[in-house]
Queue: 3 jobs
Job 1
Amino acid sequence: MIKNVHGNTVDHLGEAIVSGRYAAGASIPPEPALCAELGVSRTVVREAVKSLIAKGLITTGPKVGTRVLSEDHWNWFDPDVIIWQSKAGLTPEFLRDLQDLRRVVEPAAMRLAAVRATAQDIAGIELAYAGMRRAVEEGGDYVTYDLLFHQGLLKASRNRMLVQMSKVLGALLRTSFEISTRRKNGPQISLPMHRAVLDAVIAHDPDRAEKAIQKLIDSARDDIEEVLASRRRLPSLSQPASLLKMV
């Protein structure tokens, strides 16, 4: 997606903060300096600063100027923050926090989905699963269909807060899926585990659905730990989703 001047300015400053160029507690350059550096107007800089305040990256006030906040204040449910962190380098702590979050949210959501999923919900998840299977068998974009699969399951919970969370979880989940995809035979191994989750939801069996998603999350955790141990380069969310080669 091509961003406008405002979006590019937010990206430039956000990446600078998340990468540590502007350290926590430090002031970002004053408006005139940023205007000159980025070739934008004061209005653009001011609007970008408002966006970064909303994302929890900076704070502003009289006499103290505009200062960078520590990462504990950052909005980790903001897709931009996740992408900037990916560009700066994903940390083991970030990836393990993600897995903890999945273990809290997804099992409970699967129990609800197993009770509440409609025929329309299941049809949408089946389409996503078919896309995953096609990518494994013929090559193609596995990660995008994996995201649609999990977002469809969260939607099937019929809980408005979980449905809203599915939107902000997208970038977080993609991090995990990209890593699993790059592990040898990762998609082939995970595909039947996805099928088990879907079958449990179709059968309206909450206990089975919960156990199936926990198994899938544990498998993703093993993928991440293997990649971290190997010190291989982690994927960047700024790039298109990885394409599987034909098998």
Job 2
Amino acid sequence: MIHYIESNQLMNEVLKSQKLVIVEFYIPNSKPCEIQHEILRKLEKEFENEIEVFKIDITESQESIMIYNISAYPSLIFFKDNSEIERKVGVLDENTISNLIHELK
């Protein structure tokens, strides 16, 4: 299940997770963000024991733009062992994200 969180909750959630964490910074009602969401939803089911997915609405959390240096949406940040290990901007297709998951986990 994809978790919707506020940016101030992010590090607490990342710190708790033993899995690869993918955070999507998105804007509601954005077609690219909706496409990315559906891809992440499918991959989360496929990799349910290996990843956790969180979403942060950047229109509700302006501080996240500054804290995480978000310049475009959707933006995906991958965390492992409490550290950022990869960052991607724009819509990524299912194969690209799946390959990243295999590479980073």
Job 3
Amino acid sequence: MASAPPMRRTSSGQFPLLREHSLVPIGMATILPEAARHVRHLEAELLAYFNRFGYDEIILPTFEYLDVLAPGLEPMLLENSYKIVDRTTGRILLLRPDVTAQIARTVAMGMVGTHFPLRLSYRASVFRHEPEHVGRDREIFQIGAELIGADDPSADSEIIMLMIECLRQVGLRSFKISLGHVGFFKGLLIRAGLSPEGQRRAEQAAVRKDVPKLGEILSQERVTKRATHGILEALELCGQADVLSKGRALAKGEKPLVQALDRLASVYRLLCATGFQESVLLDLGEFRGFDYYDGIVFDVFTDGIGVEIGGGGRYDHLIGRFGRNLPSTGFALSVDRLFRGLNLSEKTMSVGPEVLIVAPLGLSARLVSVAQRLRRAGIRTVQRPVNPSGRDLIGVAVKAGLAADIDTIVVVSVDNPTSDQVIVLHQGDYRRIAGSTGRAHIRKRTVSIEDLIASLRVDLGGAV
């Protein structure tokens, strides 16, 4: 397939878009055909790989009732959600801001008799209002997996291994997993005696790795210098196994902190034992931005993207907000950021052989018949009836092929010896004679439809 024209990006790095502020809402995406092929292929490849691990796809509603989903969402996320009134019931509807909360609600309320552990996967868009000056997208394309009903280090390791294997499967070679435990950093804040509001603000600063802001908050909360030093040190403790020993020194034997480090050490050992040590960094300040995480948490980063391309963690009490507690863990990848990390916008994607089939208006029925045979054989086929108006049919077909940027032209003509034969022109033939009116310059090949299909099927083997 010929190269697509250059594709533009927005300032936030979103997919190549066709956007005007007066026509398209800010932060929403229109994905153009070349990028759309990459995106759909990427999603399909990831979902197929999830399936190999035993994760079944679930499709969730775009809207939820606010009062139903609210228990699973933190106040800030609720505030930044899009809401409308249901015309039928008068209740407030929420445009999906988070998939994990939806899955938690679905499992707790709608999957009675399910055998656990339960493995689910999904692809979905989530919608969150962000101030325009922040430069973040308001429509976020996600793909992810959830492991529900298992609470042990092997479950944590499984979900992280799945994410790593998926990233490798789609061709992302350079990335790092930042692995931590929410309980450790929270434990340090609790031990320091912060007020509930001070702890909330401190956690938000930790999510952003904003050391100066965190120090300011601790000062305002009148935390002792010694405790402040330990908290700020923990936020920047990142590396390999030696990080754990430094963390134990900060824990000072306190049971909640030691338990968090023990769980983190177990997961890290499992990942190292299965060959993932080079992909994983321990980070005792790892602290994701959703309040339902209460155990192992992780983010994944890659070169050239200034923010995480995905992440996840353990949420043992989220499902309980909707009914019964079930230990769970999972992750989500931002398809947009992964797309950019793979540099797919700069690559032309092969979609197999593409054919333009042309015939005079009087042969429309035969045109459709031949096109259907090609499509049933798995060949992408565009049909076009033309009116030569006394001009050369081959010349008209050549111009149509150039206009459509399609390499292979099939011409259905009254001049064919039998109804099962067509004329074929290939890119190397008709591009050289573009603009020429001399029929002698055109090399034509008359073949049977079966032979044409056989030759195109050879090309199908190299399709992406």
